[in-house]
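Sample intake sheet
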Amino acid sequence: MLNTELRLGWVALFGVPAGRDYDTGWHRDFGHEERDGSEAVEMEILSRLRKNLVKWHMALVYDACLWLIPGSHRRFRTEREREALINDRLADLPGAHQIVLHKGQTVFWNGNTIHRGSLPAGSTERLTLMGALVKHQEDDPMEELEGRFRWRMADNIRDRLPPATQLFYDRWRGLQQV
């Protein structure tokens, strides 16, 4: 049974009101890992990090904000990608692919992929639900809770979840350093 192997990962709402600029710049979801390491360091991170999860973005309105560099989750960055990841996060990158989602459409992908969220000119808003499920193992290490996810620790969150998802939440909460 699949649910015995899962825990909740990230959950966030990306909301950008009309008329606001939005650009995350190019990055990988490496957390506190080395961002400018050697090829050996980066490949070790890619081989270890985020191999046990699925991440998704579900558009609640038309959303053309997500840009990916296909296949970059499996390889060392190019020199041009390094420049964009470290020094010029808003640079144009060759091979970048814009993911256009219509309301209700979802894309599944890996946060190790080089990616960027950028609201295109003329877009009215962004409203996208992002989440992840992670393979749960009893020896998973404790995690440092990012400030943007602290709301998930509120006393009333668990009871508001459907009973079938409370186990996923309990596993996630049990790994948070507070």
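Comment: The chain is about 20% helix and 30% strand. The chain has one domain: 2-177.
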